[in-house]
# Entry
Amino acid sequence: MKLLTAIPVHNEEKYLEEVLRQVLQYAGDVLVVDDGSTDRTPELLGRFPSVQVVRHPTNLGYGAGLKTAFARALEGDYDGLVTLDCDGQHEPAMIPAIGARLAEADMVSGSRYLQVFDPDQRPPEERRRINVEVTRWLNECLGLHLTDAFCGFKAYNRRALESFEVTDLGYAMPLQIWVQAVQHGLKIVEAAVPLIYLDESRAFGGSLDDSTYRLNHYRQVFADALKRAGLEVGGGCGG
# Structure
């Protein structure tokens, strides 16, 4: 399969060069979507002439970066897309294995909780709590059997990319993707990836830094996505 590997970034001067050096060892075609960085990220990207770059003039959001990556993969006639974050939390050496599993599924989603790679690694308690709650919604409302709702290390085949219509440009965007994947009958598998937290102080920004607000925001985006897909579920689903 001809795969594009894409990394959405915003002000990632701390990790960018090392992450790209590693990614280029394991991926042929690499795209960085620079979501309006105001630090040295654009300058540092100039040191990697083989990397494709799309730059958003202003910061639009995490979901916007992935939406741009989806479009570039489709425009470039790629068979699929692998995505990972640029914060050092994903192992570039696993890119080939994640991509290879598209032979058996439309969507491959990394899970940091399928397997313990390093028992000394622990997720921030608040983030883990919200991840568990949102994962429960996805399983109860969509009939999935996931262990990790929010891992950015994923792979999609062309059929999956053509199915998505992203309207949420922020951090809740993956909830739209999960709903639409079920709506279109995509086959989903999880792949075990290491749990790595290098900087527990990293923030979402603005109101999303408040965990109660963030969870309520996720709940609303999820409910809207279910309604739009005609997958409304009664009872306490997503509550």
Observations:
- DSSP finds eight helices and seven strands in the chain.
- Residues 127 and 223 are 21 Å apart (CA to CA).
- Helices lie at 16-26, 41-45, 62-75, 95-100, 125-142, 158-163, 173-183, 211-229.
- The mean pLDDT is 91.
